[in-house]
Amino acid sequence: GGQPRNVQPFSDEDASIETMSHCSGFSDPASFTEDGPEVDEEATQEDLEYKLKGFIDLTLDKSAKTRQAALESLKNAFSSKILYEFVMERRMTLTDSIERCIKKGKSDEQCAAAGLAGLLCVQLGSGIESEEIFKTLGPVLKKIVCDGTASIQARQACATCLGICCFIVTDDITELYSTMECLETIFSKAYQRDRDTNGVSGTHSTVLHISALLAWTLLLTICPMNEVKKKIETHLYKLPSLLSCDEVNMRIAAGETLALLFELARETDADFFYEDMELLTEKLRALATDGNKHRAKVDKRKQRSVFRDVLRAVEERDFPTETVKFGPERMYIDCWVKKQTYDTFKEILGSGMQYHLQSNEFLRNVFELGPPVMLDAATLKTMKIPRFERHLYNSAAFKARTKARSKCRDKRADVGEFF
Predict the structure, then answer these.
(1) What are the boundaries of the signal sequence (predicted)?
(2) Which of 135, 212, 308, 408 could in theory staple to 186 by disulfide, Cβ–Cβ 3.0 to 4.6 A?
């Protein structure tokens, strides 16, 4: 696996997202400008693929820093573009590079390689190719997740990757159960620590427990109902203990998982009854109105917002519908299962989530959006509001909003006469 001589040395400039940005936007409807010059998309695609080939070669470099930068560049490209044919032709090479980086690399390199593995499966979708990748990388990821000597960050990234890859490759039910058991052994340790210390303390391993719990919850959403019932019986009475954790993200993860478990439990059994409902709602209400001064304001605001929704889900079986806009389309998130799935993929795709919702057939199938809506450049141009009209609309809206608010503001009341 020697490196070709004609590949240029890798630089920090190449590794940055800006390197990809001049290529990644041309097929994105949002990036179409009204008066922009004509762009040769075929030449742009060739230029992008040439760079990506160089990055793939550089994942074999002797320098760990160069390998990591190449992995990050590939991640940026995979999250911002649909590169199905390019990835399909090189999937075995990419899989070998990822496996080598996870096995031999240090913490940062392992994190980057695990992230790339998840994006590789997102690109290929739920087919035989993804199954082959997971057969190769699954055992490696599990080994790192369960390895107490590996860095927490690497174990955390591998746990997330394990959940996403297994979610995409759903055909083998025994593999699904095996992966869930692996993740359970990790986050269940948080229960044990709670019993030992009477309150979960925020240690460095908490971030690993959070990632394992969220990955496990994602896989629970695709389990058969009989298995869902078993998992609910095992964890529904243990999860509330994690609401006392010092780490705000663990409290939020536990709260959202509880809401999802209640939703699934009520779907499987209309007469579902939770014995400690009063105690649980009391805990949730306290977190939804938390005013402890020793906690950061940002954490408190985030926590209160989440737990107001969790409390409504547990008490009233209600979910506040969210609307996600991408291009000319809209998607409504109307349940906790859908929210958990959306949040997971948004975490790994980042700003590329909207583009993938428009163009990635696998993600569109997951969210039941149907086949991609094909819009040519002329249609997109007619849909776009001219800048001057947009300015007039915003000015009018601003004036109307100011008038409405001024009417609602309290006026100084007349004090009246004193007798």
Answers:
(1) none
(2) 212
